[in-house]
Amino acid sequence: VLSGGYELPPALARFLGSAIEDELKAASGSGKVLATRVLRNDTRFGPGLLAAAEQAGARSLLAVPLAQPRAEGSGLVLVFFLEEHAFTDEQLELAGHVAGAARGALERSELYELERRSRSLAQRLASSSRELASELDPDNVLEQVVRRAAEILEASGASARVFEGDELVVRAACGKGDTEALETRSASTAWLVGDIVQSRSARVIANAAGDPRTIEADPMLAAGHAAYLGVPMVGPDSAVHGVLAVYDRQPREWRDEERETLSLLAGSAAAARTNAELYQGVRHEQQRSEAILANVADGIVAVDRDGRVVLWNPAAEKITGVPAAEALGQTPAQALGRSLDDEGAGGAGSRLVAVRRGGEETWLSVSEAVMTDPAGAVAGRIFAFRDISAERAVEQMKSDFVSTVSHELRTPLTSIYGFAETLLRQDVLFGEAERETFLRYISSESERLTAIVDRLLSVAQLDTGAMNVQLATTDVARIVEEAVSSAGTTFGQNGHTFVASVGDEPLAAKADGEKVGQVLTHLIDNAVRYSPAGGTVTIVARRTDGLVEVRVEDQGVGIPRGEQQRIFRKFYRGEAAAQTVGSGATGLGLFLAQGLVTAMGGRIWVDSTEGRGASFIFELPAAARGIRASGK
Asked: Which domains does the chain have, with CATH numbers?
């Protein structure tokens, strides 16, 4: 095929531009300079060339063989003369020298081109390797490597297969047929890719056209690509991770440097993908650890070898009231005003530490673990702690409750025991009136003792969910009036006045009448306790929006706003309890009232201003209008 020409007549240019191997076989195969004075009669050249030369007016020809460096076969330099020319020995020798010089120039040119091409491949490979190394998504690594492989080798397509079990799956592709090729699978022992995996070496196909077996082995070849170069993706662990291949739509002889470049790129891709998978694994573990630390209820604080905070989880923020942004970089003592270190001799187990939070003392149960580096030196410490202030408060409440209940039980028991012992004396004769008085005291104190025991049993039933509630249509107005009458008898001598306001309309609720009475008893008792100076206790009952509402109002000391959410807790007694009633309150009345109301499907709350009394309101579901209350 014509590679270049100078002032060639059109007829010769057209002929030499086509495949004319047979026309010049004798000249190219001899390896010698051929000279012909009369071209039209020279049978060493084919008839096509002779006819084209005759048409162009060429009379003589000098054919100089030109060996091609790094390639099989040789070329020819053809010099046409329009006049018949007799060639001298000097001219033939000069032609040989020119051919040698041309060969040297071609060799130098080819070496330069090879060096330039190798340098370009190396630069592109280095750039691609850096790009792949910075990618932290395994799927993106494959997307980049197929794109870069096609660019570096100036190919028309590329694909990357990776192992999934015993199969090789196309995870990335570019070029014609890439969509169809994605996610196709081949056995690791299949033709073509299996050969690459088993031999751990490149597989080269210059032209797959006409080879059905090869075309069927690769969907990109089936899509119309002709040339194929595939190499194994060998990772840092020396294991084959997959196959990287490039394609060309035209038949192509793949050069050695191209094979080497693709192999190096495949190795970089395997290493980058391994690193990306490791990073994703570490990142996943980090995210999982962060999620655990963010949702764990315990405060977690980590300090480095210098004692400065490097981790302060959300629970630590919540428990201590110190934001992580303020704590990081400081020591725990600077952040909390109190060190978390074990000040003893390094004893194991948890310890109690008190810190200040918003002006209040918070008690922490702290445990500690030491982190060591590979050399065994202390690299840091981890502190885990939880807020046990509420637990300590409950324990204190329980202790106070036991003391209070003991006192409450001791008083009636002492009275019962004393009057019983008096009645049993043989040395004193009591009249009937005195005996009746003593027995009345014993009966009264027994009722008081029974009430205390019943209250404790009710607490146990609420705690275990065993509270039995019998719901029925109940006349709340009648129960309110009975409660007020009973309270007047019991507490009237203390300077308290009890008023019931129920209106004329029957107030029928779907409730347990006995439990409603107990709720009122607890609320009235609470009103009396916190009204030491006497005053009026008003019980108002009314129907509203499908509910029956009962309100117990007193003129006592009131309840601070900060305590209003805590007064319904078991054993809780506010500041007013300690100052007003001393140790006489058990902290169970409001707890029981709330539990009973809730068990009947209602709700209870408090409305109070400190120093102006309190109103306890509870609501119960109303029974249908027109139904006469049963008066349970």
From this structure: 10-112 (3.30.450.40), 135-280 (3.30.450.40), 296-387 (3.30.450.20), 392-464 (1.10.287.130), 472-621 (3.30.565.10)
